[in-house]
Amino acid sequence: MEKKTIDTMVGTLDKRMNRQLKQYLDICARCAICKDSCHQYVATGDLKYLPARRAELIREIYRKYFTKAGEFVPALYEARDPDETLMDELYESAYACTGCRRCMYFCPFSIDNAWVVAAAKGMLIAAGRGNEMLGQLADAALFKADNMDMFDEIIVGGFADVEKELEEETGRPIAIPVDKQGADILYVALAGSHSIKPAAIIFDAAGASWTLSKFEAANYGFFFGDPAKAKLIADRFMNEAKRLGVKEVVITECGHAYRVAEMFYEAWAKEKMPFTVRHILEVIDDYIKDGRIKVDPKAIKERVTYHDPCQIGRNGGIYEQPRDIVTAIAPDFADMTPNRQEQWCCGGGGGIVAMEEFNKVRLASGAKKVEQIKATGAKLLACPCENCRLQIEELSKVHDLGLRIVPVMELVAEALVPKAEHTAVS
Ligand code: SF4
Ligand code: SF4
């Protein structure tokens, strides 16, 4: 590889180097406990998917350029320059990683291989080897934001169409407010009406003061591995929230978008936001518990199970609210085993569903999730993340599971008891 490219990669790693990353790079004990925690390694047995091996590729470069021993006696200290073989392996192991952090949970030293992988993606991008599809999707989102004058009419017209559809479907007018100055909530949805309609029905039933963002929650800059782009993408709705003076930004049923807005954005922006950020399921859970909406406790007759999306559960810390919501409307709830912190990744996170080249490992790596779902005996799966839904829908077809996979808020919208009937339902 050209020295200039290597220097750029090493410079990128240097910029990301902090105590946390240094610690992860310094302390792996090579105990290989993490091998049994990664759905991709368990499914394939391929060394490049072993969590510690993914990080080891970066460690080899790190030792060469950031330690004296590695600089002077590279052969003895397993230090090396990146070459084409290392770059190919790095690309595959980094972009295949779904960032589920199950390996971190089981590692005795809590080494966050997904964090190391994020640094790897940065180095790949610096070397011109970032994933093309994710890069293009990130750029498309930025283009839309930069040319809002061109898209504004289409977007607002689209929301008016969703209002009409809602009226046809529910038999009553449900407003979708846009650009509402001083609303309490800015709701950030995904592209398409499926993540707008159930939320609008629930906000309406709760009498919430809300307004819909003109921007989408999805953030391919995050999956691509470019924090600068990821911040610019999130800027779109964060600036909108500031302009409208809302008290709260509520992110739709999406895992990574919630983490970006709640866990990373303020650090990237180096600024405290004048509003809170919550996931829509946290809001709905409060509405039910506060009595702002009433749901039929027997609305769902069939057995239902719940999938903990990694970015909402293990990485986002939201475990109980979705379960409380589902059990409030479905008496026959069967949790998967293991669940919560230990749940298996479905295999569809980290942007992998958008990268066709990883289809084989993606589908194979869903085997553990398929086992878990089958064991519950449920044919209805509540799932609050679009990437997980896409993956599990495909798994359901391939494994003939006959599953119906539904966003949690859609189940709630169907289970709502009209105000006039509140006293009739106990
Ligand atoms: S479990 Fe942790 S310490 Fe052990 S090999 Fe994996 S990353 Fe290294
Ligand atoms: S974060 Fe998940 S996909 Fe990535 S190495 Fe760890 S267990 Fe495997």
Residue stretches low in confidence (pLDDT < 50, at least 5 long) are: none
Sheet with the most strands, sense and barrel status: 4 strands, parallel
Assess the beta-strand content as a share of residues. 5-15%
Q: What is the CATH architecture assignment of the largest domain? A: 3-Layer(aba) Sandwich
Terminus-to-terminus distance: 70 Å
Provide the spatial order of strands within the biggest beta sheet.
2-1-3-4
- The total count of strands amounts to 7
Number of self-contained structural domains = 3
Q: Work out the helix count.
A: 20
Small molecules (ligands, ions, cofactors) in the structure: iron/sulfur cluster
Shape: globular
Secondary-structure class: mainly alpha
CATH fold group of the largest domain = Rossmann fold
Question: Mean pLDDT across all residues, rounded?
Answer: 95
Order of helices and strands: HHHHHHHHHHEHEHHEHEHEHHHEHEH
> Which class of the largest domain in CATH terms?
Alpha Beta
- Helical fraction equals 40-55%
How are the elements arranged and paired?
Elements: H1 3-16, H2 19-26, H3 39-44, H4 51-66, H5 68-72, H6 84-96, H7 102-106, H8 113-126, H9 132-146, H10 148-170, E1 185-188, H11 197-206, E2 210-212, H12 220-224, H13 227-244, E3 248-251, H14 255-269, E4 276-279, H15 280-289, E5 304-306, H16 320-329, H17 359-364, H18 367-376, E6 380-382, H19 386-398, E7 404-406, H20 408-415
How would you describe this protein?
This protein folds into 3 domains: 3-129, Fumarate Reductase Iron-sulfur Protein, Chain B, domain 2 (Orthogonal Bundle), CATH 1.10.1060; 134-289, Rossmann fold (3-Layer(aba) Sandwich), CATH 3.40.50; 304-415, Rossmann fold (3-Layer(aba) Sandwich). It is 53% helix and 6% strand. It has 20 helices and 7 strands. It has a 4-stranded parallel sheet. α19 links the parallel β6 and β7. α11 packs across α20 (408-415). It starts with a helix and ends in an 11-residue tail after the last helix. The model has no long low-confidence stretch (mean pLDDT 95). The protein binds iron/sulfur cluster (2 copies).
